Amino acid sequence: MDYIGNTDADNKDMLQALGIASTEDLLKDIPQDKIIRHCLALPPAGSELEVKKQLREVAGQNASVADFSCFLGAGAYDHYIPSTVPVITKRGEFYTAYTPYQPEISQGTLQSIFEYQTMICNLTGMDVANASLYDGATALYEAIHLACEHTQRNIVLVAKAIHPEYRQVVHTYLKNSRISIKEIPFIEGLIDLAALKSQLNDQVAAVVVQQPNFFGCLEHVQQLGAMAHKQGALFVTSIYPVSLGVLQKPAEYGADIVTGEGQSLGLPVSFGGPYLGIFACRQEFMRKMPGRIVGESIDNRGQRAYVLTLQTREQHIPRERATSNICSNEALCALSACVYLSSMGAAGLKDVATASLSGAHYLAAAVARIPGWKINFKTAFFNEFVATAPGNIEALNKKLLRKNIIGGLPLKKYYPELKKSLLFCVTEKRTKAEIDTLVRILKEKN
Amino acid sequence: MEKVIFEYHSQPTSYVPAADPAAVNKHIPAEFLGAEEVTLPQTCEQDVIRHFTALSKLNYSVDNGFYPLGSCTMKYNPKVNETVADFDGLAGIHPYSPEECVQGALKIIYELESFLKEVSGFSGMTLQPAAGAHGEITGILLIKAYHQKNQPEQKRNVILVPDTAHGTNPATAALAGYQVRQVKSDNQGDIDLEDLQQNLGLDVAALMLTNPNTLGLFEKNILEISHLVHKNGALLYGDGANFNALLGLVKPAELGFDVMHFNLHKTFSTPHGGGGPGAGAVGTSKDLIPFLPVPQVIKKGKNYFWEYRQANSIGKVRSFYGNFLIAVRAYAYFLALGAEGIAKVGRQAVLNANYLMHKLAKFYPVPYHRTCMHEFVMTPHQAWSVSTLDIAKRIIDYGFHPPTIYFPLIVHEAMMIEPTETETKETMDTFIQALEQLAAEAVQNPELLKKAPLTSPVGRIDEARAGRQLILKYEKGRDTLLT
Ligand SMILES: Cc1ncc(COP(=O)(O)O)c(C=O)c1O
């Protein structure tokens, strides 16, 4: 099947109007020997019935959080999504629109982004938020870039307890640039304060941490922010928005730029994407922000109306002097977050955060009691924690899979020093019974 | 106008079991806890649904009607793509699940990459970039790594960008640390070969080229251009935003492109989502494969694996593996069209655009008198007192989305029109009729155009004021611009 609506007769009429015999007459500018004349090596066309069946078959070869108890987190969280979210984001008026460059017929998208910006500002305590970036990793890169532009300094101190893939992305972007990244190791799951102090001076553009960090541990952000500011460096954080249902707002601990992965706000885990890059900052940096921003104005009929604003930062106007090259962002994911937060409200978000951290602490306490198991860090944590297993963790995870449980994340690949450890995550979707089942299997001798 | 969601006040609906609030203080030390409540909407489900439904009705979309936004390829977004992307076995997969329980997902990535290779002629592919511009930075970093590996002593710190290029091209080059040097277009709308030769020094790392270019014209001298670029030791980067014109027609790798990004949200029918999410696959020649982002999916026997061992990889450009569910939609599109359907896309897009251009050229000047590819540029008559903006706004009153306006920059008052292959002659004829009428209005009643749109939910918006009196979030009790 294809989605061409013209009939052969329509095409003939058009050719006739153009005074030509065949579409080939329109292709004269193309080197003739490069035009494809053979059949491409692609599958045969499929009807909708067949396409759906094929996709159902491949989908069936994957373990879904709908059928498995998932204890994986690490930047992708299996939170509950209210029914309101897909009902709204599946409206064609939202998902088949382009970027709202014609505001008179894009108020739906524009107002929803304005509301999203408001919610992100309220959650983080920041003055301004943009309309979204690609994901948590690229948002963190953009924040580092902004911090260096603003301070005119080129050294950035990045905690090693930040998501390894975020650090990798930052590294890819900044390799061979004027900006140098220094990684600060961790002790007891938290940034090593002595190491940080020894590197922190008035050449440093930013101190960058994640809260909660990759291990789920809570960094002493108040103190870190103060240390950064004392040297004139910016304090940049990467946050987990659901945690802000209970945790201190980044503004309260002195964050200057707040980034984060917004997937936990109403987006499915989706094998890693599409997700939502959150970016918010203090007023001072507003004109250096990357990405689109929606502002309120009025129309020529005297009504409240919204438009894209501060566009002189964006690529289509200053081109090579733009603050970022981003064009398409994750608008529909921002809409998901907006509907999610509107549905949950502050109380609902607090319930999600509380149930998640309660479940994680319940599991951690139970794991700590299993002979041979050890909880690595004695620090406060949110809904994830690192535990070390006595036996072979690959074999353990395979065994769990057979019981429809996706176990914790083996950390060896990211931190060789934690080669026998796993990162466990609990969300409000994991019931006490599911956690108890996991613990029972962990207790069994291999 | 619809209220802001924060202006609703009703009893919130609960979606998860109530949690014991005492647990927070029990487990989390006070130093980490928030002092103040978060301010979020206080709204029942029915108000939430009505609010966002009301907002949706203020939008114009492809599902509403013709959306000839040049360079954006607003083709129809098939509904089966949406259905399959929601399958639990796709939307519900955790990215760190063990390989053995995500074989289906790896298969989709592997096969979509092979389909994209087949239609483009490239040997390497990655689906990691999240959009076109993200694909650009990925591609340029590949080029940088390639030069550093092969010619470390030769300093190539310039990227050439034609004056017709999209803004993301120069922005990307600058972001990657290159100097941007602009290349002129000639009076035919092609790259000026002389100017290109003059600018092609040993300091040039690459030329970023869009073909067809943003005037909708196929670069006639493409083989000569790629020859010149390569002779100079530089590489040819392809901005594949306009690949729809070539789909099933020409393989860019055979034209001499070394690396190109695709916009899955243009050419491969995935929706634009009001600005995203899209997805930006990147295809490369054999020489650039060693530098591709990690991980790559490989197949051994019947099984698929992640391959992270690539010593020369540029690393990662995004967390996890990119916008997977967008890739799923593009995959479903390939399976539906198959070899036969794909063969039709570019040709139909070209026929539709030429028909539309031919008809509209009677009323609106077209700057380049030659066959176009999938889109074309036209302008208002010089004698008219109305601007392109006025025409665009009046098009809204006729029930269509306006074209892309004021781009490309080299055509004064440009309107760039792209019908795509999915629009029917019938739809285009209604558009043609409307634009004929509008051309008459431009002469007889220009004031009507200057006041347009009259039928949209809001009228023209004071953009200058939005930029001056910045209101970037809702604050209760704060005076809005209305008071
Ligand atoms: C020619 C061209 N290049 C690049 C881009 C950037 O693509 P994206 O918005 O997906 O980042 C666009 C899209 O607007 C475009 O039209």
Find the CATH superfamily of the largest domain in chain B. Answer: Type I PLP-dependent aspartate aminotransferase-like (Major domain)
Largest sheet of chain A: 7 strands, mixed
Tally of discrete structural domains of chain A: 2
Number of strands of chain B: 12
> Which architecture of the largest domain in chain A per CATH?
3-Layer(aba) Sandwich
Largest sheet of chain B: 7 strands, mixed
Strand residues, percent of chain B: 5-15%
CATH topology of the largest domain in chain A: Aspartate Aminotransferase, domain 2
Spatial order of the strands in the main sheet of chain A? 2-10-9-8-7-3-4
Element order of chain B: H for helix, E for strand: HHHHHEHEHEHEHEEHEEEHEHEEHHH
* Residue runs with pLDDT of under 50 for 5 or more positions of chain A: none
Q: Share of helix among residues of chain A?
A: 25-40%
CATH superfamily caption of the largest domain in chain A? Type I PLP-dependent aspartate aminotransferase-like (Major domain)
Amount of helix of chain B: 25-40%
Structural class of chain A: alpha/beta
Can you tell me the CATH class of the largest domain in chain A?
Answer: Alpha Beta
N-to-C CA distance of chain B: 15 Å
Question: How does this structure look, described?
Answer:
The complex is a heterodimer of chains A (446) and B (483). By secondary structure, chain A is an alpha/beta fold. Chain A folds into 2 domains: 69-80 and 344-443, Alpha-Beta Complex (Aspartate Aminotransferase, domain 1), CATH 3.90.1150; 84-340, Type I PLP-dependent aspartate aminotransferase-like (Major domain) (Aspartate Aminotransferase, domain 2), CATH 3.40.640. Chain A contains 12 helices and 17 strands. In chain A, the strands form 5 sheets. Chain A has a 7-stranded mixed β-sheet, sandwiched between helices. A 4-stranded antiparallel β-sheet of chain A has the order 13-14-17-16, with helices on one face. In chain A, helix 10 crosses helix 12. Chain A is globular. Chain B has 3 domains: 5-56, no CATH class; 79-337, Type I PLP-dependent aspartate aminotransferase-like (Major domain) (Aspartate Aminotransferase, domain 2, 3-Layer(aba) Sandwich); 341-468, Aspartate Aminotransferase, domain 1, CATH 3.90.1150. Chain B has helices at 22-27, 45-56, 79-85, 88-91, 103-120, 132-150, 168-175, 193-199, 222-231, 264-267, 324-360, 388-397, 425-444, 446-451, 463-468, and strands at 124-126, 158-162, 179-183, 204-210, 235-240, 259-262, 282-284, 296-300, 303-307, 376-378, 404-405, 415-417. Chain B has 483 residues and is α/β, with parallel strands linked by helices. In chain B, the strands form 3 sheets. Chain B has a 7-stranded mixed β-sheet, sandwiched between helices. In chain B, strands 10-12-11 form a 3-stranded antiparallel β-sheet, covered by helices on one side. Chain B has a two-stranded antiparallel sheet with strand order 8-9. Chain B contains 15 helices and 12 strands. Chain B is globular. Chains A and B meet through helix 1, helix 2, helix 3, helix 4 and helix 5 of A and helix 1, helix 2, helix 3, helix 4 and helix 5 of B. Pyridoxal-5'-phosphate binds at residues 71-72, 131-133, 166, 168, 210, 214, 239, 241, 263, 278, 280 of chain B.
